[in-house]
Design goal:
- This protein is α/β, with parallel strands linked by helices and about 400 residues long.
- About 40% of the residues lie in helices and about 15% in strands.
- The protein is built from 17 helices and eleven strands.
- The protein has helices spanning about 20-30, 60-65, 80-90, 105, 110-115, 140-150, 170-190, 200-210, 210-220, 255-265, 280-285, 285-300, 300-310, 320-325, 330-335, 375-380, 385-395, and strands at about 10-15, 35-40, 70-75, 95, 120-125, 195-200, 235-240, 245-250, 315-320, 335-340, 345-350.
- β1, α1 (about 20-30) and β2 (about 35-40) form a beta-alpha-beta unit.
- α7 crosses α8.
- The chain is elongated, with a radius of gyration of 26 Å.
- It starts with 11 loop residues before the first strand and ends in a 5-residue tail after the last helix.
Amino acid sequence: MERLPLPLEGITVVAVEQAVSAPFATRQLADLGARVIKVERVDGGDFARGYDTAARGLASHFVWCNRGKESIALDLKDPRGREVVRRLVADADVFVQNLAQGAAARLGLDAATLCAAHPRLVAVDISGYGASGPYADKRAYDMLVQCEAGLVSVTGTPEQPVKAGIPAADIAAAMYAFSGVLAALVRRGTTGRGGPVEISMLESLAEWMGHPLHHAMHDGTPPARTGLAHAVIAPYDAYGTADGGRVLLSVQNDREWRRLAEQVVGRPELGTDPAYATNAARVANRELTDELVAKALGALDADEALARLEGAGIACARLRDVREVAEHPQLAARDRWREVESPVGPLRALLPPITLPGGDTARMGDVPALGQHTGALLRAVGMTDDEIAALRRDGVVA
């Protein structure tokens, strides 16, 4: 049977992007076959290139979000640089930008302006708080939006709220931008018209706050911060093991509690004891419930604890650090690791989680050097070598 091509083969994306939200969105498009042209500053490029040097000298954020793209370095303050972008957009299907609020409009590169000139174009504006309202012009970095969206208030321990360990607001906005592009392309296929797509980090993350937000709106009280425990289920927490590991388990109903009491805790009478027999009772007696479970698991090493819990049909997991995730046996068994090329040589990377059986595998292209494709892209929009040399001499391109 003939293999299906990647679904975005033939789609061209131009992105004036930086940091995480737009780059992560367009990387999803690149993985699915789109050609993504990344427009960067001439003076250092996407500032995420300078976040760290953890990936063999490259920034880990940049490597994660920018494989499979062509990099062109332009000075957009110069009208000649903006003209290059307009030429690129004229032949594109999608445009994405996440510049500071108002900056794209000043450059004539906002979605409304570009879609008016190119009716088939899908143009995405990603902002922190949206184009209107009292917060429209506020600076919006991931941690700030996590605070404004309430994520920090429900994450952490009873004593201390903490931010998420990943850029949750950036990722939320990226994934809605990605899905918004796909939806707009489907609509274009039936109407022939593209159109603007607006995404805000605050609105994206507020949507992800679904359970605690609805709990607070309708019950009047937000869920308590409980660390690794669950606010309304017990036992549901991480427990130490004899070898220094930690194992998380979740008892979802009273039948599971009876099995845990008999087969793991070794005290079957707790299954019917009124102090523990129902979830409401276990939550009310959470400290004593946790002590019983902790004592039982603390006598076992992590592998033994997991085997005992699995045998009893109790949902459980090993609390892994990030280095352990890189060697996760499930990811290895499913062959989820690949290598992508970069300016410093091959780098390990995960296959994207969208798998399309019967079709081509994800296109995990190279991580580009700054301006690696500038010359080729300028020639592609009709510039001569003399014109390109003049732009380089004047610092308009790099």
